[in-house]
Amino acid sequence: MKPATVPIVSLPPSSPGLLMHPSWPRYRNVTAARKRRLSPLRPRLPLPPPRLLAVAIAFAFAILFLLLVLLSTTSPPSPPSHHHAVVARPSSSSAPPPPRCSSAAASLGELGDAMVSMLPKDLPFTVFVPSADSFTRVLRLQGPSSNASAAAARGEAAASDTDANTYAILSRVLGFSAVPRRLLAADVPPPRGAGAVRLLDSVSGLSLYASRDARGALVVNGVRSECVDIVRGETVVHVIAGVLVDAEFERSFSAEFDG
């Protein structure tokens, strides 16, 4: 007896395979959708509202402004020695405070009067005029009358050159010593007080640091005053025991006389 044979049926190319069920594409779409729903999402941080952000920025600026105000009031400027040069006569710490000289009795000397006369009469100025001894000892200048008598024997040309040199030196020193505002000695606070150092800018741009020592005397860039609050119209004059100059003028002036 022959074994039974199973007929092999070949499927046409256009017919779907037996392993392909009509519902499989829909199953794949549902599975992909479930995977997307189950996949972890990236967390998103909530953004602050614009009004809250503006308030925070304004508050930060207010705190910064208060800190700057506190720093400016609690740390007064100290005169840095490398920003300016001062030629001064050392004064004794036991010296009495300088008197407040009346305008009628105070004498600035010939050179001091000539220096103040270069300023405008109708504008407020404060000028720190060197004393008569400082003019002679530091700047090696004499008054116009002394220069005229000394140069009389050398002729008119020599006298004219001397006067021109004196005028040039006085104009340079005036630029270092004049401040375009009125400043009385009482306008400078006492030592160890708030804002004890007053920073002033001279006409030539030299930084002037005005303060008062332990005895109440007015001190400018380390130079002590001899007579304060001399009022000449709109100008306030303080006589100091030295000369206020910058480093460049001091070097050139010293080299001229040393050479």
From TrEMBL:
<protein>
    <recommendedName>
        <fullName>FAS1 domain-containing protein</fullName>
    </recommendedName>
</protein>
<feature type="domain" description="FAS1">
    <location>
        <begin position="88"/>
        <end position="244"/>
    </location>
</feature>
<dbReference type="Pfam" id="PF02469">
    <property type="entry name" value="Fasciclin"/>
</dbReference>
<dbReference type="InterPro" id="IPR000782">
    <property type="entry name" value="FAS1_domain"/>
</dbReference>
<feature type="transmembrane region" description="Helical">
    <location>
        <begin position="52"/>
        <end position="71"/>
    </location>
</feature>
<keyword id="KW-0472">Membrane</keyword>
<comment type="similarity">
    <text>Belongs to the fasciclin-like AGP family.</text>
</comment>
<dbReference type="InterPro" id="IPR036378">
    <property type="entry name" value="FAS1_dom_sf"/>
</dbReference>
<feature type="region of interest" description="Disordered">
    <location>
        <begin position="79"/>
        <end position="103"/>
    </location>
</feature>
<keyword id="KW-1133">Transmembrane helix</keyword>
<keyword id="KW-0812">Transmembrane</keyword>
